[in-house]
Amino acid sequence: MGSPRAVTGEGLQSPWAHGLLLACLAWMALVFAPALFASAGWPHADALRWLFHPVCHQIPGRSFHVLGEPLAACARCTGLYLGFTLGVAAWPRLPNLATRLAKRPRWILVFMLPLAVDVTFESAAVVRFATGLAAAFPCGLLPLLAIAELQAAQSQTGGDPP
Amino acid sequence: MMDNPKFKSALMGGGVFGAVAALPYIGMLNSVCCALYIGGGVLAVYFYLKEHVPVPKAPYADGAVVGVLTGVIGGVVTTIVGAIFMALGLAPFVSETAEGIAQLEQAGVELPDFVRDIATGEGAGAVLLGVQLVMNVIMFEIFGTLGALVGVAIFHKKDANPG
Question: How far is A158 from chain B (nearest CA, A)?
Answer without folding.
Answer: 17
